[in-house]
Amino acid sequence: MTEPILLIEDLHAMVEGKEILRGVNIKILPGEIHAIMGPNGSGKSTLANVLMGKPGYDLVQGRVVYKGEDLAGLAPEERARRGIFLAFQNPTEIPGVSVVNFLRTAHNASKPDHTLGAMEFRRYLQGKMDLLGVGGDLINRYVNQGFSGGERKRAEVLQMAVLDPDLAVLDETDTGLDIDALREVAAGVMKVHNESRGILIITHYQRILNYIEPTFIHVLMGGRIVQEGGKELALVLEAKGYEQFRAEAGIPEGQPLTDEGPDGRQAKK
Ligand code: ADP
Ligand code: MG
Asked: Who lines ligand 1 at CB under 6 A?
């Protein structure tokens, strides 16, 4: 039997005293790409944060098993060292730190047994840049400072390639990208992917799934998986929206499906 890269069983998680995830089950086998789709406020980023072990996101029931190991009690950097990568929804600026130095620090921190010196790392990085078709100027700039949306995501995919994770979690990697940048980022993700890894793509639009074909799609609403299917499910969602799952998600009629205010911003955060 093939051991799953990731096994999430009956996961319940609380944030700020509120139960946000209410029984999530997902199994990712090597080589599979899973997508989690759902409206804003459904718990997608909470799931990513729980997988990464971010403080404040408390697993209260169920378990998360990565390559046979229960992740409970492991700090985020220990999870990173085991090969889990989370691309953040809103990557931060790091003034004064160049992309190349940032990537080398991240690489060496996640692989303490295979640290690379400056010259060696340059060579390693160049290989990844060639693979992804990333130009040389990006890596000498300060992390995310003055980056366009596309440049941020390109740097993120480069970071993923450098860290060489067994499980990559991409939270809204498609947000704010024009179609060319989206296509490029998707192509980069596919170049890093292979038969021994798992990828979890979190998105509330289906358009990135035109370029990255998922093995499975899970619809998350109200902290529960309310529907699952193959890649064709994305088209159903695109055509019919999330309203059809209101009953399964336990969200009463009249209550908004998302916690977005009328101006489109998150109501609480
Ligand atoms: P999504 O990523 O699907 O938009 P989130 O996981 O960000 O959803 O949010 C799910 C719910 O959890 C929302 O009601 C949100 O307000 C709440 N939540 C998430 N993170 C926090 C936090 N750090 N503090 C308080 N509430 C949070
Ligand atoms: Mg989110």
From this structure: 15-16, 20, 38, 40-46, 56, 259, 268-269
Rounded Cα–Cα distance for residues 125 and 150 (Å): 19
Which pTM does this prediction carry? 0.91
The bridge status of strand 6-15 relative to strand 57-66 is antiparallel
CB neighbours of residue 137 within 10 Å: 9
Domain boundaries along the sequence of the chain: 6-91+166-249
Q: Which residues surround ligand 2, an ion (CB under 5 A)?
A: 44-45
Please choose from 44, 45, 200 the residue to mutate so as to test ligand 1's pocket, defined by most ligand atoms within 8 A of CB: 45
Quote the ligand 2 centre to 45 CA distance (angstroms): 4
- Ligand (nearest to CA of 90): 2
Pairing of strands 142-143, 94-98: antiparallel
How many CB atoms neighbour CB 174 within 10 A? 22
Q: Dihedral of the CA atoms 160, 165, 167, 172 (nearest 10)?
A: -10
> Which of 12, 19, 20 best tests ligand 1's pocket when mutated (most atoms within 8 Å of CB)?
20
Tokens of 81: 């060292």
What are the angstrom distances between the C-alpha of 234 and each of 47, 206, 207, 250? Answer: 20, 6, 9, 22
CATH superfamily entry for domain 6-91+166-249: P-loop containing nucleotide triphosphate hydrolases (3.40.50.300)
Residue stretches of the chain with pLDDT short of 70: 88-91, 259-269
**Residues 16-34 pLDDT 10s:** 999 999 999 999 999 999 9
